[in-house]
Design a protein that fits this description.
With 147 residues, the chain is mainly β. Helix content is 12%, strand content 34%. The longest helix is centred in the N-terminal third of the chain and has 13 residues. This is Signal protein PDZ.
């Protein structure tokens, strides 16, 4: 058995159900379920100036209505809330960013180009830096900065 592959598959199966696709009138992006009350954390650039959204859970095509709770452009963070959260929402478990070390493997999950439930890998190349998010117009829905 390949333990690294097993670890990848275990983490993906634990985290992916907490990843959502967010659609606005002008685009789309990804977010993560924060709690079972329907709060979702995403990027401020994803919500833009919108106040209403359509949200799809991982591996689902059904859409749910959501509204803006708050947007913090200086931090590129935003919170939206599902109007009628379904039972069984899977909030993400959050780690301690202070324990991240250079060389650790990372996984990013989201909806690049609207392809829901996509997974990619990377590596922690540095810690303790203030970073600015790289912008990519080629792959909307795939923020690649500030992991």
């Amino acid at each position: 058995s390949n333990s690294l592959q097993d670890d990848y598959q275990r983490v993906i199966s634990q985290v992916l159900p907490s990843v959502v696709q967010i659609t606005t009138a002008s685009g789309l992006g990804s977010g993560i379920i924060y709690d079972d009350k329907g709060d979702i954390v995403t990027n401020a650039h994803v919500v833009g100036t919108a106040s209403t959204f359509q949200v799809s859970l991982a591996n689902s095509t059904s859409q749910m209505d959501a509204t803006l709770v708050g947007s913090y452009p200086d931090s590129d963070l935003a919170v939206i809330k599902l109007a009628s959260p379904p039972s069984g929402l899977r909030p993400a478990a959050f780690g301690d960013s202070g324990k991240v070390e250079v060389g650790q493997i990372t996984l990013a999950m989201g909806s690049p180009l609207g392809l829901s439930s996509s997974v990619t890998q990377g590596i922690v190349s540095a810690t303790g830096r203030t970073v600015t998010e790289p912008k990519s117009t080629d792959s909307p829905g795939a923020t690649i900065g500030n992991m």
